[in-house]
Amino acid sequence: MYNDCILNVQDTSRNGTYHNRQFAKEAEAHGLIVTRSEKYGFAHTAPADNLLEWLLSHDELREIEICRTTAYTAVGVGTHSSNGGAITNSHSRRYICPCCHTIIRATKTVNVICGECMKTMIEG
Question: Distance of CA 42 to CAs 13, 16, 34, Å?
């Protein structure tokens, strides 16, 4: 998200499947340990000790999970298109959960429910 929204650089290839060196560079600069896999590139991340220490020293962040202990589930409730289903050449759309502020991206307009909060995500 940082590379895409802040730096405006592409950090994946193979239609978003493979994380490249740009992803690894910025992830490491933000306190993650990055390892490479043959199938997904620089996709395996873990928090470095200094990142964990920083997170634990900020009580206001205690309620945010810093690791994935269970699989996250997204629930789709259907899709719709404002142009009658025609394929357009637009950029991806960003959806935000109004409750937990989880962000997802989609290549078309969709109706999405956050799997954590069961709230409809808002395009924005």
Answer: 11, 12, 6
